[in-house]
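Please fill in the sequence for the structure shown.

STRUCTURE ENCODING:
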């Protein structure tokens, strides 16, 4: 298979990020206005008719927006009636997650003020304990090999909504989580990330090291799994093996 040049890959990534930001703006406008036509959205965002249609088609395909006929008392000229785009219930729920984040952050601040930092840590550990139990149950039969367990854990985390994948690299293994459901809260309370890292370590069965987190502005939560003496000789042959479990 022919590989794209690095520059082309980078350009595709940049375009995808720009598209994502534009669709976030469309979602926010629809949330604020309750509904809008393609022409109204295009004017608000400075996009051409073809440009706004491309983004709306993508949002329709993803199930984030729906369409209804424009209801207006004003007489219309000839031609098809304008269509109004609205957010689906699922998209509205996602837009509301920041409100829950604010409540969670406020609750943790209250705990920190009235009970101290140790209480916040205790709360974080309690929060991830249920996740640990579910992961441990789903990982039965994964064996004792840390890399095999990392691959099994990635699959379980993906089912939990973390969009995870496990890879083998020259210095050991790597577990990446491309989504974090508590990133906004964890940015203020790193105890949540620390508790999750401890769970990953226990589930894999070896010491691990967090290299990056979404909560601190990185694109991916990355956990390094150092190679043990028994695996040091195998990293070359396994270096490029990747188990991708993103949904």
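FILLED IN BY: designer on duty
SEQUENCE:
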């Amino acid at each position: 298979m022919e590989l794209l040049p690095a520059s082309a890959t980078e350009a595709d990534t940049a375009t995808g990020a720009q598209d994502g930001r534009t669709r976030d703006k469309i979602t926010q406008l629809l949330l604020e206005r309750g509904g809008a036509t393609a022409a109204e959205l295009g004017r608000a965002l400075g996009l051409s008719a073809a440009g706004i249609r491309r983004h709306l088609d993508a949002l329709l395909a993803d199930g984030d927006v729906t369409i209804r006929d424009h209801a207006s008392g004003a007489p219309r000229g000839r031609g098809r009636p304008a269509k109004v785009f609205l957010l689906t219930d699922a998209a509205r729920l996602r837009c509301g997650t920041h409100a829950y984040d604010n409540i969670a952050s406020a609750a943790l601040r209250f705990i920190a003020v009235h009970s101290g930092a140790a209480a916040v840590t205790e709360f974080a550990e309690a929060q991830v304990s249920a996740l640990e139990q579910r992961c441990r149950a789903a990982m039965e039969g994964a064996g004792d090999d840390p890399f095999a367990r990392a691959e099994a854990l990635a699959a379980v985390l993906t089912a939990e909504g973390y969009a995870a994948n496990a890879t083998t690299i020259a210095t050991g293994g790597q577990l990446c989580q491309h989504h974090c459901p508590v990133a906004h809260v964890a940015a203020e309370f790193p105890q949540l990330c620390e508790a999750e890292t401890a769970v990953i370590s226990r589930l894999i069965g070896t010491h691990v090291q967090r290299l990056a987190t979404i909560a601190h502005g990185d694109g991916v939560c990355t956990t390094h799994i150092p190679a043990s003496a028994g695996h040091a000789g195998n990293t070359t042959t396994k270096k490029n093996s990747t188990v991708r479990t993103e949904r």
